[in-house]
Amino acid sequence: MANHLQFVFFILASFVLCVKSNQVPESYVVYMGSIKEETNPEAIQADHLQMLSSIIPSEEKERVSLIQSYHHALQGFTAMLTEKEATLLSGHDGVLSVFRDRILQLHTTRSWDFLEKESGLRSERLKQRASSDIIIGIVDTGIWPESPSFSDAGMGKIPSRWKGICMEGSDFKKSNCNRKLIGARFYNNPPDSIQSPSNSSHIYGITSFGSPRDSVGHGTHTSSTAAGSTVMNAGYYGLAQGVAKGGSPSSRLAMYKACSLGGCASSAVLKAIDDAIYDGVDIISISIGMSSAFQSDFLSDPIAIGAFHANKRGILVVCSGGNDGPDPFTVVNSAPWILTVAASSIDRSFQSSIVLGNGIALKGSAINFSNLSRSESFPLIFGGDAAAESTPVSEASNCYPGSLDTEKAAGKIIICVDSDPTVTRRVKKLVAEGAQAEGLVLIDEAEKGVPFDSGSYPFSQVGNDAGVQILKYINYTKKPTAVILPTEDVEGFKPAPVVAYFSARGPGGLTEAILKPDLMAPGVGIVAASIPTVDIGDIPAGKKPSNFAIKSGTSMACPHVAGAAAFIKSAHPRWSPSMIRSALMTTATTTNNLGKPLTAHSGANASYLDMGAGEVSPLRALSPGLVFETTTEDYLYFLCYYGYKDQVVRSLSGNNFSCPGNQPSPDLISSLNYPSISIARLDSKQAGRTVSRTVTNVGPANSTYFATVDAPSGFMVKVSPEKLVFTRRWMKASYEVTFHVKDATKGYGFGSVTWSDGAHSVRTVFAVHVV
C-alpha cells in the first residue's frame, strides 16, 4: 500500500512541476506574415500590446511589453509568455506561428586570388565594372571599426537611398562609421530565459552587448571577407603574408550585431533582418543557423522567415549551411529562397612537421608559433601510457580533462587520438599543457585538413597513415623522441579545392525536392580581419596582437558568396536575387587545380549533396548566358506544395494569392524554377518523372543553345526540346527534363544538363533518389 501511495505522490508531484513549468514566462516570437507598406509602425505596436493585454492576467501587467517589434517588411513581436499564453496566441486571427526564442549558433587573402585563378579569366578588366553602390548587410557578432579592412580611402559618397543609422555605445561612436562601414546597429541582451551561460568576453573588457563593437571576432572576420578594403602586407604573425581584400572591396558594409560569444537570439536575428530590409541593403550575409538536429519548419525558423521577406523586397540572402558534416541530412538554412553555402579548402596549407628521433619528418597540419628547432628533441609517449591513476586508457588516449598523470607527461611530447569527438582540439591542447607536456601530436583523420591555432604551444595534427608510423616508431624504439616544428605556410597545395570535412551535407532535412547546399566556397584556413586579442596564449612571444586571424567554417564560406553576389549585382543592378544565384550556380566549377573532379575530404569524388553546383567562380558568373529566375510566386507555390494552408500562404504573400489545390503535392516542388534539380523519390517501376524549367536569355540577342546530358549508369535522361532559340535579350524559353531508371542502383544518382551556345555553358546539376 505504501508503495502505491508513493507512486501516486510521485505522479502528483510531477504533474504540479509540469504545470508550474508551463506557467513560467519565457521569450516567444509571434510571427504574423507580411506587412502593408503604408501601415503605421506605432499603430502596429499598439495592436500587438492590445493582443498581449487580452491574454496576460491583469496582475502581471508588467509583462505587457514588446522585447522586439517587427514592422518594416514583416509583422510580429517578441514577448514574455507562458506556454499556455503562447498556445492561446497561436490560435489568434492573423498569427501564423508562435515559437520559443532560441539561441542560434555561429557557424565558425589568398582565397579570392585562388578563386580568380581557378576561373581562368583575366580579372582586372572585368573588375573595373564594379560599382560602389552595393550595400552588404552582415548579421553577426559586431565589427571592429578600427581595422584597416574597413578604411574608406578613395570611396565616394554614401548612396542617397541609405536609411540606416550608426548606433552609439560606450565604446562605439558615430565617427566609427565611415563611407565603407555606413551603418551599425546592435540588439539588447536576450531575455534570461534563453541566455547562454557563455556570454562573457575577454577582449579589452568589452561586454557582449551594449554597442555594435565586436567582442568575439566572428563578425569582423566575415565582414572583411565579404567586402574588406585592400590591405597591403597583411598576415598572421608572419604566416599567409600578402594582400588582404574582400570579394567586393568597392561595396559598403552595414553591421547588425545580433550575436555574442554564446550565440544569437532568434528574436534579435529576425529584428536585424527586418531592419536591414528597411535600411536599404542589397545583400544580407548570415553565418549562423540552427542545429541540424533540431531543425524547425519554415515558419518557425527566424532566418527562413526574415529571408523570405528580404527576397520579396529584392534582397538576396546568403547563409552558411552549417558545420555538422560529413553526415547526410545535416545542411541547415535550406529554404529555397536562401542561397546556402558549403565550405571548401584553398591551395594553401599550414604545415607543422614532426621530426622523429630516427630522422623521419612527417608533415602535420597546425598553426603553432613554437620556437623549437630540429636540434631539439623530447621523449615521445602515447597518451594511454600517461594515464592518471584509476583513469581508463581510452580517456587518456583522447586527452580527456584530468586523464593525464603530470609525472608521466611532464617534459614529453604526448600523442593523443580523436576516437571521442566530444573532446575538442582546444580542450586536448589545454589538457596536455596542464600536464606540463612539451607538445601534443593529435592523430585525427577527419579534421587533419582544418588547421587548429594553438598559439605558442607546440601542436601538430596528422592523419591515420602518419599516425600509424608514429605509433610504430614508439612501439619499436627503446627511447622514442621527437620535436614539433613551428608552422610554415605552403602555397600551390594540390588538390584544391576539397570539400571540408565539417561542411554540412544534403539532402535538406525539410525537403529533399530542393537540392541543398547550393554552392561551395573557401572556408578552411581563411585569413581576414579580426579583433586584437589579449589572450596571452594566442600571441607569439614578443609580438603585438594581430589585426588578422585565420578561421575555418561555413561561416567563412558564406561571406565569400555574399561578396561574389555583390560583385555580380554591381555589374548587373537590374538582376533579381534569384538571377544572381542562378548565375553563380550554373557557372560554378566542378574540377580542382589538378583538372580532376572535385573530391571530399576522404579523397572520394564529391557529390552535389556535398558541394551543391560546385565551387563559386565570380568572374564566370558575370556572363552566364542564361539564368533561372525564381519569383516570389514560385516560392508561394512551394509553400502550398509543401503543405501550408491557403490562409497561411496568403498572409505571407501580403495579397490575395491562392494555392492551386487543397492537397499538398511534394512531387511538384521538383518543378520549382530552380537552377538545380532534385527528385526525392523515383521508383524504378514508375513510368518516369518529368520536371520543367524556364530560362531567361541575358546574353547576346540572337543565340541558339543546345542541350547535352551527363547521366549516371542506369539512368535515361531526356531533354525536350533539345534546342532553344532566342531572338532578343530577356526572352524566356521553357523545356522539360524526363528521368527514367533501369537497372540503376538504389540511392542517389548525380548528373547534369548543360545548355551551350558555343560561348556560354549553363550547367544544371541534378540529384535523383532511386527507391
TrEMBL record:
The keyword Cytoplasm does not apply. Residues 1-21 form the signal peptide. GO terms for biological process: proteolysis. CDD domains: PA_subtilisin_like, Peptidases_S8_3. The keyword Protease applies. Keywords: Hydrolase, Protease, Serine protease, Signal. One of its GO terms (molecular function) is serine-type endopeptidase activity. InterPro entries: Peptidase_S8/S53_dom, Peptidase_S8/S53_dom_sf, Peptidase_S8_Ser-AS, Peptidase_S8_subtilisin-rel, Peptidases_S8_3, S8pro/Inhibitor_I9, S8pro/Inhibitor_I9_sf, SBT. Belongs to the peptidase S8 family. This is CO(2)-response secreted protease. It comes from Elaeis guineensis var. tenera. The lineage of its organism: Eukaryota, Viridiplantae, Streptophyta, Embryophyta, Tracheophyta.
